[in-house]
Amino acid sequence: MKKTKGHPLVEPSGSGGKIALGPLETFIGFHLRIAQDVSFQTYAHHVGESRVKPGRFGALLLIGQNPGLTQMELSRALARDKSSVTPLVQALQQQGLIIRKSCDVDRRRVTLWLTDAGEEELGSLLTHAEEHDRKLDAIVGDKKEEFLALLRKIVNELA
User: Fold this and answer.
1) Between 82-94 and 54-65, two packed helices, what is the crossing angle to 10 degrees?
2) Quick check: helix, strand or coil at residue 28?
3) How far lies 152's CA from each of 73, 82, 148, 149, 157, in Å?
4) C-alpha angle with apex 52: 126 to 141, nearest 5 degrees?
5) Is there a domain that residue 106 lies in?
6) For residue 42, is it within any domain?
7) Strands (E), the chain
8) Is 114 helix (H, G, I), strand (E, B) or coil?
9) 78: closest CA among 67, 89, 68?
10) Residue 63: which domain range?
């Protein structure tokens, strides 16, 4: 992956200059999105483009940590609406990484479980995620706890 300084919207290659961002320069939401995109792209490149993408990794991890999680609970944990989680769950199931089971107590509820292949894939992806997170730790430095607290505060106050 070619290393470039900044983001293409901020420093387009070959232009010799920056695009004027105007008010976006100070918009936290804009910078959060750019940072997330760059982080996800770097992670996806590291694990291989054909493997599970970062959003799917998060879903696998949540299902692995919470066997029997319902799709609605997964949706809330990922802060995604049900309509975007449904295709995610279907893709994970088609890849053989999760299975859906009817709940023993309430047959109308469907629970999510990792398959053996899902457990194996999650283990591999977790290793890559931990390595990627160490790079982010190095960037954030000793302000990690403060940074995470601010991100959680944004989520809690805007949700």
Assistant:
1) 80
2) helix
3) 19, 22, 6, 5, 8
4) 45
5) yes
6) no
7) 69-70, 98-102, 110-114
8) strand
9) 89
10) 53-130
Query: What does residue 114 show for φ and ψ, rounded to 5 degrees?
Result: -75, 145
Residue 19 lies in a domain: no
Structurally, the chain folds into a number of domains equal to: 1
Name, in order, each residue with C-beta under 8 angstroms of 75's C-beta and a sequence gap of 6 or more: 81, 82, 85
Each of the 159 residues of the chain gets a pLDDT tens digit; together they read: 344 445 555 554 455 667 888 999 999 999 999 999 899 888 888 787 656 666 788 999 999 999 999 999 999 999 899 899 999 999 999 999 999 998 777 777 899 999 999 999 999 999 989 999 999 999 999 999 999 999 999 999 998
Look up the CATH number of the domain holding residue 74: 1.10.10.10
Residue 101: inside a domain: yes
CA 149 to chain centre: 18
Tokens matching residue 57:
């990794």
Tell me the two tokens of residue 39.
């982080």
